[in-house]
Design a protein that fits this description.
alpha/beta, 251 residues, 9 strands
Length: 251
């Protein structure tokens, strides 16, 4: 039985939309603009493909929802994927260890790439884009829409861009690690990401937040909460689940 994270109790497909896009802004004023435009409301978009690392998706998702964020899940399939007209099948993704998740929608629901990407497109509804790792990264890093969303988020300086384990490889494809952006990643990515800070579990550099591996999933989630709100919100969630207080990161 799949986990129905993307449906209401009555089975209705839920994907709430914002009335307008977040304005383009400089990174230094990002946090203040979130408060000014949306008060305490925060929204995050997770991209999941078959083979995603479950703990790297479910743990940050759970922590963000505990913090009060709206979290949406979007299924990403390889280019040759054919749902055969079965919309529910298209929304289903299976993790590396067999956990099935029914997402809110799948990427093709949004039409051609030019409709999805660009300022005012899909990302306009969100404050953060979150990319879990796992074998799914191999096909996701070759998906022009996934890479395009990450590139738009980075170039527009309009969203937090969060990737863990192997998912920083997607950021590399999107040129989001150019210019000496500090980051960490799974040690197995050393050949492709030689500048990664593999000795650090979580690294935040401005709007880019990266995690090393599944073992850092909790710290990764707290880092996203602190970025979207503040360290106090992250500490509050940690206390609620009786976890050690998260160590504040220097942006």
């Amino acid at each position: 039985m799949p986990a129905t994270a993307g449906t209401t109790a009555g089975g209705e497909n839920r994907l709430p939309k914002r009335a307008s896009a977040l304005p383009m802004r400089r990174a230094m004023s990002h946090h203040n603009n979130l408060r000014e435009h949306y008060g305490d409301e925060r929204r995050a978009l997770f991209l999941l493909g078959d083979g995603f690392e479950e703990i790297e998706a479910i743990t940050p998702l759970d922590l963000l929802r505990r913090a009060g964020a709206e979290v949406d899940l979007l299924a990403v399939h390889p280019r040759d994927y054919d749902a055969g007209g079965d919309h529910e099948k298209a929304r289903l993704v299976t993790g590396k260890n067999g956990l099935c998740v029914l997402t809110h929608r799948w990427l093709d629901d949004y039409g051609p790439p030019m409709t999805i990407m660009g300022y005012g497109g899909l990302l306009a509804r969100y404050d953060a884009l979150v990319l879990p790792g796992g074998p799914a990264v191999e096909h996701m890093r070759r998906n022009e829409i996934v890479v395009g969303l990450a590139r738009d988020a980075h170039w527009c300086r309009s969203h937090f861009l969060c990737a863990i384990c192997a998912a920083p490889l997607i950021l590399k494809e999107a040129f989001a690690l150019e210019g000496g952006v500090r980051h960490t990643a799974f040690p197995g990515c050393r050949d492709e990401l030689p500048d990664a800070l593999f000795d650090q579990a979580v690294v935040r550099d401005d709007l880019v937040i990266t995690g090393r591996s599944a073992g850092a999933a909790t710290e990764f989630g707290f880092a996203i909460i602190a970025a979207l709100w503040d360290d106090a919100r992250a500490a509050k969630v940690a206390a609620e689940i009786h976890a050690p207080p998260p160590v504040p990161l220097t942006a």
